Amino acid sequence: MTLKIEEILSQAAVKIGNISETPLLDAEMILANVLKISRFDLILKRKESISVQDNTKFQNDLNRRTNFEPVAYITGEKAFFEDVFYVDRRVLIPRPETEFLVLKAIEHLKKTEKKCDVLDICCGSGCVGLSILRVMDCNLTLSDILEDALDVSRINAEKLFPEGKDIRFIKSDLFSSISEKFDVITANPPYLSKSDMEKYVTGAMAFEPAAAFYGGESGIEKTIEIIDASFDFLKPQGILILELGHEGAGYIKDLRNIKGLEIINDYSGIERVAVISPRRSEN
Ligand SMILES: C[S@@+](CC[C@H](N)C(=O)[O-])C[C@H]1O[C@@H](n2cnc3c(N)ncnc32)[C@H](O)[C@@H]1O
């Protein structure tokens, strides 16, 4: 018996209802990916049936979701800012809250007349730096400690800029292999503590690289290392724009007397981004 798309979807939503907060949406995204059509077209075709091969592929993909694998890894893509990024298990799945970091960087770059040198450290899929480059003409460097992450960044650079762009990719433990100075450094560093890792990195998050989450015993260590080192890698008017974790703002306000620090709340009122211009106060 061949089932219609709408019946396949409602059965699928029941099947993954206990592991997902958005079971119908997940099922639609997975099926649209199998059929290589948009979710919108899938809904328009809801009265049609699909081939046995497509249904088999869909059921296999749905089983992966039943085992908690995130939809983005199953479909191999995640929408972020103005684009759709390729993702797989080598990188963190870009989070919507990180779009705020991109916005703040673009706002700053728009105020600058010259073509800026931008470094996105801890780049993962490249979503932060490449999203900036889509909007602002700049000299972009992407760096990460994992060669795997840089490989995914390269895939995204080719996908977003098929005409080719002069982007540098550097494998580096924070700044250890970086030798120049930049106008803007962006970072969404790992910021979970040891206890956060045990509490939150389960289910779907356990599929993502642990290196993308673990910021040190109390979670803030990598953030502090970046702030402390950034002084040496920023030009005189340069700024560092950092995404903060849950308690990040409190930590950095307390832990250090950081020069030129501004904490910015996102649209939900959460202290999400730190903008630091450590060298400006020297002038
Ligand atoms: C929270 S993820 C952010 C990825 C991406 N920027 C995003 O926003 O989706 C943190 C990234 O930092 C990288 N990372 C972890 N430790 C690092 C280190 N010591 N030096 C450089 N990168 C590091 C991880 O491999 C991961 O890609």
Distance between the termini: 76 Å
Q: What is the tally of helical segments?
A: 11
Write down the overall geometry. elongated
> Which structural class do you get from the secondary structure elements?
alpha/beta
In the sheet with the most strands, the strands line up as 5-4-3-6-7-9-8
In short:
With 283 residues, the protein is α/β, with parallel strands linked by helices. The chain is 39% helix and 18% strand.
Write the layout of secondary structure elements.
Blueprint: H1 5-15, H2 23-35, H3 39-44, H4 52-66, H5 71-75, E1 77-80, E2 83-86, H6 99-110, E3 116-121, H7 127-135, E4 138-144, H8 147-160, E5 168-171, E6 182-187, H9 194-200, H10 221-230, E7 234-243, H11 248-255, E8 261-265, E9 271-276
Parallel strand pairs: 3-4, 3-6, 4-5, 6-7
Antiparallel strand pairs: 1-2, 7-9, 8-9
The protein binds S-adenosylmethionine.
The site of S-adenosylmethionine has 22 residues, from helix 7.
